[in-house]
Amino acid sequence: xxxxxxxxxxxxxxxxxxxxxxxxxxxxxxxxxxxxxxxxxxxxxxxxxxxxxxxxxxxxxxxxxxxxxxxxxxxxxxxxxxxxxxxxxxxxxxxxxxxxxxxxxxxxxxxxxxxxxxxxxxxxxxxxxxxxxxxxxxxxxxxxxxxxxxxxxxxxxxxxxxxxxxxxxxxxxxxxxxxxxxxxxxxxxxxxxxxxxxxxxxxxxxxx
Length: 208
What we know:
- By secondary structure, this protein is mainly α.
- It has nine helices and no strands.
């Protein structure tokens, strides 16, 4: 004899509404950041989420908790770009083009949010941790792209070459070209691609 289906309790409903409201607030924060808002206020976030100020922040112990939720939502939208790896059989020119396609798309997506994060990072352990995790993931991605090109490069030579590639292929380098120099996306793409290609060849020649 089958058991009767258990109906959701009133407590279950409250938990579900709390989760939904947390998501709404994080989504509202992310939408404001992506729209170019600089350090959105609590009132702006609540209004964007279509919630009262009390309801919007009731389920967050502090701003760090909201940053954590917002980062989680942001990272879920860029996950595929961050975990991308080249096909093993691809030659270096094709790997470099594929990498740059991924990096340009990633950096254009995250730039409005990253600009805000950089204003808060020195007083937010959550943002510092999350940006550090992303930077490490992107360093690992570079290593996957460059490893076949560098062959037996080891020790300090390998570390220095990877450091140079990380600096030249970073969001900070992209932001410098796009925001400070006023480069188009295409020009920034070409410049970063040239820098990374030069680093790969320079590391190879330094071993010969």
